[in-house]
């Protein structure tokens, strides 16, 4: 099993990317949440991976955070959910929002994710309710829990990109309180790191 890859990001076009490491190019598929935080082509990147072996292909999936990968793996255990749909769920909703919709039995909200119909949404709620507890909330270096939502997701993404937890916390706080989306928070944090 390939657990992670570190190498040069050679190419990216959602949902596919290519990471070259020691002369070998690994093709991966990744959710949009990972694409939002990928560096520019030619930069070093580290991704956690999950290998799916099918009769006709071996497909490698890449994730920036361990929570993304664990949710992906947990979704694959749900009847009727394959890798493509699991990737779509991770691309269409944050982990925290998914957790809230499942806990709140909000099938209507889940059906807004492309590829998730009413029956699939109901199955996700029933089968995922007890499985989401294993997804940990990120914590900063000083032991304070990062809040759920955009701040926590941005923190996890920055740490996965190689920033120290204390630096990730500083960059997120410097990005400003008026940011409401994970993507914008990450963008502002990375812009602050370049200064």
Q: What fold name goes in the CATH topology slot of the largest domain?
A: DNA polymerase, domain 1
Provide the helix percentage: 40-55%
Put simply, the count of helices is 9
Strand order of the largest sheet: 1-2-3-5-4
Keywords:
single chain; OB fold (Dihydrolipoamide Acetyltransferase, E2P); five-stranded mixed β-barrel; 5 strands; 19% strand; alpha+beta; DNA polymerase, domain 1; globular; Helicase, Ruva Protein, domain 3; 195 residues; 3 domains; 9 helices
SSE layout and pairing:
Layout: E1 4-13, E2 16-21, E3 24-29, H1 32-35, E4 44-53, E5 58-63, H2 66-76, H3 83-92, H4 95-103, H5 107-110, H6 118-128, H7 150-160, H8 165-175, H9 182-194
Parallel strand pairs: 3-5
Antiparallel strand pairs: 1-2, 1-4, 2-3, 4-5
Helix pairs in contact: 2-3, 7-8, 7-9, 8-9
Structure notes:
This protein has three domains: 60 residues, OB fold (Dihydrolipoamide Acetyltransferase, E2P), CATH 2.40.50.140; 69 residues, Orthogonal Bundle (DNA polymerase, domain 1), CATH 1.10.150; 45 residues, Ubiquitin-associated (UBA) domain (Helicase, Ruva Protein, domain 3, Orthogonal Bundle), CATH 1.10.8. It is 43% helix and 19% strand. The chain is built from nine helices and five strands. The protein has a five-stranded mixed beta barrel with strand order 1-2-3-5-4. Helix 7 packs across helix 8 and helix 8 packs across helix 9. About 6% of the residues have low confidence.
């Amino acid at each position: 099993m390939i657990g992670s890859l570190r190498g040069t990001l050679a190419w990216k076009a959602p949902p596919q990317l290519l990471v070259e490491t020691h002369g070998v190019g690994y093709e991966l598929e990744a959710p949009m949440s990972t694409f939002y935080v990928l560096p520019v082509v030619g930069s070093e990147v580290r991704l956690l991976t999950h290998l799916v072996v099918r009769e006709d292909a071996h497909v490698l999936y890449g994730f920036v955070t361990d929570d993304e990968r664990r949710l992906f793996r947990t979704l694959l255990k749900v009847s009727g959910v394959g890798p493509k749909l699991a990737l779509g769920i991770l691309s269409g909703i944050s982990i925290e929002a998914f957790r809230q919709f499942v806990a709140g039995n909000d099938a209507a909200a889940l059906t807004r994710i492309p590829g998730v119909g009413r029956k699939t949404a109901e199955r996700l709620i029933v089968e995922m309710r007890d499985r989401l507890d294993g997804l940990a909330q990120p914590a900063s270096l000083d032991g304070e829990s990062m809040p759920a939502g955009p701040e926590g997701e941005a923190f996890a993404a920055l740490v996965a990109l190689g920033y120290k937890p204390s630096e990730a916390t500083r960059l997120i706080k410097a990005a400003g309180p008026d940011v409401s989306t994970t993507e914008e928070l990450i963008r502002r944090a990375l812009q602050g790191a370049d200064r």
